[in-house]
Design brief:
- The chain has about 230 residues and is of the alpha+beta class.
- The protein has a domain of about 130 residues: VirB8 protein (Nuclear Transport Factor 2, Chain: A).
- Helices cover about 65% and strands about 20% of the residues.
- The protein has a 4-stranded antiparallel β-sheet with strand order 1-2-3-4, covered by helices on one side.
- Helix 2 packs antiparallel against helix 3 and helix 3 packs antiparallel against helix 4.
């Protein structure tokens, strides 16, 4: 009986020790968990501070003055501007001024040339189309000296083969006048003039026959003279 009681007491003691150990382990784990829980805010604070530092660095870099360049680089750009850009701009400006001056002189010369060619076209047209039966050789011969190039050759051949013999045989005389003329285009060496012509022709003893026409006269300058290079009816 006593041994049985002692055995039960021993088992009860072992059970009590086991429960104590379990409680101890539980308390230890609880303390560890609490310590871990307490450590988590410290780690979060450290991460937050690091992120704040990175953000501040980024803001500082973004707010940095982009114009603040190293002095050496600034001097290099200044030399480029002084020795490269400024001379180039000066050269372009001089070229533009030279072109404008040349253009102004060219336009002035072309205008003067146009006026001279206009007067020559009017006078030469009258000489080419006016003649009398007794003076046709001299008049048309002199008129051919007012021409140039292929047109001079064709005019000379036409007057020699057709106009002069016909004027003498049929007693033809013509008088041409230029009521109007205008410059179409002109350069210092070339001009085109539109000439309006009235021509009155008398055959033998008949009455005059009047005709009106317009001619596109092309002139070229040879030396100091304007000569007709083309004479095209319009």
């Amino acid at each position: 009986m006593t041994a049985r009681c002692n055995g039960k007491a021993a088992r009860a003691g072992e059970l009590t020790d086991h429960l104590d150990d379990t409680d101890t382990d539980t308390d230890t784990d609880t303390v560890d968990d609490k310590s871990n829980v307490g450590a988590q805010p410290e780690s979060a604070d450290r991460d937050y501070e690091e992120s704040i530092g990175v953000t501040e660095d980024a803001e500082a870099m973004a707010s940095a003055d982009p114009a603040a360049v190293p002095k050496g680089q600034g001097r290099r750009w200044a030399r480029i501007v002084v020795f490269g850009v400024v001379p180039l701009l000066a050269m372009l400006l001089a070229a533009a001024c030279g072109y404008l001056k040349w253009r102004d002189g060219f336009d002035h010369d072309a205008h003067i040339a146009g006026l001279q060619a206009l007067q020559t076209a009017k006078e030469s047209t009258v000489s080419l189309l006016s003649y009398g039966p007794d003076t046709v050789d001299q008049q048309l011969g002199a008129a051919s000296s007012l021409l140039a190039g292929d047109f001079r050759e064709s005019y000379t051949q036409l007057t020699r083969d057709v106009v002069i013999p016909g004027a003498k045989q049929k007693n033809i005389s013509t008088v041409a006048t230029v009521p109007a003329a205008a410059v179409v285009s002109s350069t210092p060496r070339h001009a085109v003039v539109l000439v309006f012509v009235n021509q009155s022709a008398i055959v033998d003893k008949g009455g005059p026959t009047d005709t009106a026409s317009s001619v596109r006269v092309t002139l070229e300058k040879a030396g100091d003279r304007w000569l007709i290079a083309a004479f095209d009816p319009v």
